[in-house]
Amino acid sequence: MSLYSSSPRSLSPLLLLARSASSTSSPSPDFSRLPGARTPKVAGDKGPRSLRVPSPDAARSALNHCVDLVKKHDKASYLATILMPPKSQPHIFAILAANVEIALTRDKVSSVSTTAMYRLKFWRDTFSAIYKGEGLVPQQPVATALVAFARCSSFDLLDLLAAARQRTIGDRPFNTIQQVYSYGRDSTGSLLRLQAHALRHATGADGDAATTATDAAIDRLAEAHATLTLVRSAGPFTLRRVVLLPEEILVGEGLTPDNVVSGKNQDKLQTAVKRLVELGASRLHDSRAIRSSVPRTDRPALWATAAQCEHVIKTAAAAKYDIRSQLLQRPRPLLAWRLLGWRMTGGY
């Protein structure tokens, strides 16, 4: 399908993404005509009615903060979101910004510090205040955006997302690949479900009516993402003498965490890394195998994560499974065009 055959109505977002692919400064989505800054119409059991709804100006300022935060720290999700239905974008950007805040807390604070625990508790308490009416909502831009645009989101999924990150504080390696999969389902899987919920809600469908196929596809993709993210982050973590690669895989090749940090037994380490990449690729394949059963409206939620998985699989092979190769740290070229292709074909 040619870009030039697109209708005038569909051409605008295509050109927007094309410019972002060829420019270092991506345009921000235009929310000036979106209804999101008004009080969302939700059922009485979707959230506490006592919450003070932000003014339109406060909501818009908070949303712009969320967009900038996601654009800076999660470019793949930013590009994917600006291709999603406009009515879903404020909701999804608020959720993605909350995820960035949680991830930055986990990744930037020393594992021996209690600061990370307190910051993650702050976000869990914030979710409780917004979605369960327990406590006061802090004057924080992302919290404001959640109140204004994401009142119908699931407290359980948001709390599980933060709890999963909280469990990894201490930089202890995973014992088995099944533990990696479980972490992926709780962290990435929760985020994908929140996005799928937002997409359904924007179309007027029952946001909670996820199909079995959607849930299965999300679980397999989340498992792939967790596994492949371990591979991509392994090199930088060794500089901090941290090894998160599952002991089950290392022991299978006769390796110890010290071997990974020192770089000894490089051949065995590359074999172990290749095994992890193959497991991640298998999970990605399993997710895509049921794509036709996943409602087309749900699939955009999987775009960014699938693109990230593809990139790690390809670059790890090009780097010959050397975790210290800079190839693994390079951003994916032509990412915007890959996402655009999926938007046009219904893939992921």
Automatic annotation (TrEMBL):
Name listed for the protein in its UniProt record: Phytoene synthase
Regions of compositional bias (Low complexity) in chain numbering: 21-34
Ranges for region Disordered: 21-57
SUPFAM superfamilies found in the cross-reference section: Terpenoid synthases (SSF48576)
A Pfam short name: SQS_PSY
Coiled-coil region: none
Organism encoding this protein: Pristionchus entomophagus
